[in-house]
Design goal:
By secondary structure, this protein is α/β, with parallel strands linked by helices. It has 7 helices and 9 strands, in the order βαβαβαβαβαβββααβ. Helix content is 34%, strand content 22%. The longest helix has 11 residues.
Length: 195
């Protein structure tokens, strides 16, 4: 398996079908899987994932049932993944055409990659403008000190994921900045992929 796309979901029945359709329409010549981690959803999230899995054998439903939390769910997905390359996205977003191929190509040359977030497609103007337009840059920055991944749009080589220990589960927010700091301190470059 070349690439594992990992997406965590908690009560995402409203947005999940759009993201699933976007992911499963990705065109890339490599062998890849979609790991969808259901983290204690009480709505029809798991049923939606099962329906997609029944039509596409790339889709795997994984349950993260010990506790609620995105960091924990991401680690459960990372453990279930078979790919040498890991790509992460969120269930309430919609990846662009070519996203999986861009992440995979980036990881051929770099250990950790990230990309810009498009704000206007899914958000009302007031919300998109409140977040700041720096998220539309290919790579983030922690106050100009070190580069950061975009938590909803990034990839990492499995060997690096294992070496740095995955996501810190004691963080309920800012886990993307914390992982980026560990990369920075370990000499692992985070590269922005505009595509």
């Amino acid at each position: 398996m070349d690439l594992s796309v990992i997406m965590c979901a908690h009560n995402e029945e409203r947005y999940l079908p759009d993201q699933m359709d976007a992911l499963l329409s990705q065109e890339w010549t490599g062998d890849w899987e979609l790991i969808v981690v259901d983290n204690l959803s009480s709505d029809s999230t798991a049923a939606i994932i099962r329906a997609y899995a029944s039509k596409d054998d790339r889709v795997q439903l994984v349950h993260a049932t010990e506790r609620a939390g995105q960091s924990y769910a991401m680690n459960v997905g990372g453990e279930a993944a078979k790919g040498e390359l890991l790509a992460f996205c969120d269930a309430d977003d919609v990846v662009a055409p070519g996203w999986a191929a861009a992440i995979a190509r980036g990881l051929e040359h770099h250990e950790v990659v990230t990309g810009p977030n498009e704000l206007d497609l899914l958000n009302p103007p007031w919300l998109a403008n409140s977040r700041g337009r720096s998220t539309e840059e290919p790579v983030g920055s922690f106050f100009g000190i070190f580069p950061t991944i975009r938590g909803a749009n990034w990839g990492i080589r499995r060997a690096v994921w294992q070496r740095i220990g995955g996501i810190r589960e004691d963080y309920s927010a800012g886990q993307d900045a914390e992982l980026s700091l560990r990369c920075y301190l370990s000499g692992i470059e985070i590269v922005g992929i505009p595509e």
